[in-house]
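3-oxoacyl-[acyl-carrier-protein] reductase (Cloacibacillus evryensis), 245 aa
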Amino acid sequence: MDKRIALVTGAGRGIGRAIALELAKDGCAVAVNYSRSEGPANEVAAEIRAMGGEAVAVKANVSDAAEVKEMFKLVAEQLGAVNILVCNAGITKDNLLMRMKESEWDDVIDTDLNSLFYCAKEAVRPMLKGRWGRIIAITSVNALRGGAGQCNYAAAKAGMIGFIKSLAREVAAKGITANAIAPGFIETDMTAVLSDELKGKFVESIPAGRAGTPRDVAGAAVFLASENASYIQGQVIAVDGGITM
């Protein structure tokens, strides 16, 4: 491995942005993926270049296999073959089962779960060739409504974790690791829409006594992408202040 080249999906805002910046500080060239947030993604790439790093912003709908394939081709041409993949793109569309539309189910499964399959499939081949790679899945932050109306989110999260564990068994002997990070209540645009009352009640239940920040998740991602994590396989790292204890 001559160069660490990271692709972070959904990297224009929130957790993805923090991960892209921290990987760049750690010496990685970074491809900043976005679907709609072109301005923020370009700002992240510009910030990385301003600190002396190498970065490009690349547009792709990661729920579309053809666009994912083209994205990896463009990144390889501009930076080199991806050997660190962080699948961060995700959405939530809460609704009770009886009211949930098929499109709401499909959108979450496509964006949160299918995108991991599409991206990992493209990333694994060059990683196998280079005998080194890191695949990290970031499960979506809960919408924090007591679990009601989140069957699509729960299915996607379970699928992501199962996929990562299965993939880890497949590639572990080839110098590639596959792990997941499960964030708890993180201060992002997704949680900003919640009422102060609801956020306050949730924070009260967190042993750490505070909400998490995108950098908290980014720190875990940078570690999993490092040589120090070479013997960690198929694990789910909860970055949640202890809420799952």
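The mean pLDDT is 92. Helices lie at 14-25, 38-50, 65-78, 102-130, 151-171, 189-192, 196-204, 214-224. ok done for today
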